[in-house]
């Protein structure tokens, strides 16, 4: 089983982005396999999106709902999806997280509208896939 397979099987992953001064900002997020990458979904105006737009270097690790890692950290590169791809990520999340995923996505759409959230593509560093 590859690292990508193991991470995509997790319920939560710890996505760590980095501030301008280099300080790490870890956040537990849902993730789903998207081809040869992982995808996560978040608010479009979140701090992690702003940090990724500035610097796409991130790390990912398996974790629990509270963000406590239970596996090795892996370097990755993050990019923000466009609207069409974000819709596909929402569909993948609905499939993986079933009823809870559908309810979370519906609630978010009602609060923020379709453009209020974005998908993030996480490509594992060479040799990590």
TrEMBL record:
Start and end residues of each Pyridoxamine 5'-phosphate oxidase N-terminal domain: 6-79
One MF term in the entry's GO annotations:
coenzyme F420 binding
Q: Which SUPFAM superfamilies match?
A: FMN-binding split barrel (SSF50475)
Keywords of the record, alphabetical order, are: Oxidoreductase
One GO cellular-component annotation of the UniProt record comes to:
cytosol
Tell me which positions the record assigns to the signal sequence: none
NCBIfam families in the record, alphabetically?
Rv2061_F420
Name of the protein described by the UniProt record: Pyridoxamine 5'-phosphate oxidase N-terminal domain-containing protein
Give the organism the record lists.
Micromonospora cremea
